[in-house]
Design brief:
heterodimer, A: mainly beta, 11 strands, 0% helix, B: mainly beta, 4-stranded antiparallel sheet, 12 strands, globular
Chain lengths: 114, 112
């Protein structure tokens, strides 16, 4: 069975550029989560979708970040313009039910903004 | 407010040693509790969970018991292996199961 798929696995970009991270959740899962992980702040929930609808985006840092889920099998997280402090590992996760159901994480995208 | 507190790492043990990673939480009611593990270079994966007081979650030799009296969910393993080297995250659901509150993670290194 395919797990959560994220692309790219690594992204190196220059400050000011647009970055788009992609996620394909596990088929049949109703909830999708975007997380950011850094040494300084640990694991942070950025946004949570349920049935393709954003439920909680209180963790999105600022207007430079946006996330979409146009259908049940695809989501994007966009940063425009990117800044060096956005450098982190970004994880996508999905679950069958809601937040408290077992979350299945993708391998992550390591973003470096120079 | 609602929180999850884990013991600070890194924890360094020799192979076959006993492991305890402490986790305490603040909450109203009896939220579901979780331990997730992150192996190097990978995403997190569920290790075990408990959904009500006095439940014991177990998996891969790890155990944790939901203690409402002490609001704790400590992770234990009787004999660790080098392959257990990872970061361990304690988490709890909020009262409505609409949010997962994460601890900061505890890094474990097991030496041969």
């Amino acid at each position: 069975d395919a797990g959560v798929i994220q692309s790219p696995r690594h992204e190196v970009t220059e400050m000011g550029q647009e970055v788009t991270l992609r996620c394909k959740p596990i088929s049949g899962h109703n909830s999708l989560f975007w997380y950011r992980q850094t040494m300084m702040r640990g694991l942070e929930l950025l946004i949570y979708f349920n049935n393709n609808v954003p439920i909680d985006d209180s963790g999105m840092p600022e207007d430079r970040f946006s996330a979409k889920m146009p259908n049940a099998s695809f989501s994007t997280l966009k940063i425009q313009p990117s800044e060096p402090r956005d450098s982190a590992v970004y994880f996508c996760a999905s679950s069958l039910g809601g937040m408290a159901d077992t979350q299945y994480f993708g391998p992550g995208t390591r973003l470096t903004v120079l | 407010g609602d929180s999850v507190t884990q013991m600070e790492g890194p924890v360094t043990l020799s192979e076959e040693a006993f492991l305890t990673i402490n986790c305490t939480y603040t909450a109203t009611g009896y939220p579901s509790l979780f331990w997730y593990v992150q192996y190097p270079g990978e995403g997190l994966q569920l290790l075990l969970k408990a959904t009500k007081a006095d439940d014991k979650g177990s998996n891969k030799g790890f155990e944790a018991t939901y203690r409402k009296e002490t609001t704790s969910f400590h992770l234990e393993k009787g004999s660790v292996q080098v392959s257990d080297s990872a970061v361990y995250f304690c988490a709890r659901a909020d009262g409505n199961n609409r949010k997962l509150i994460w601890g900061l993670g505890t890094s474990l290194a097991v030496n041969p």
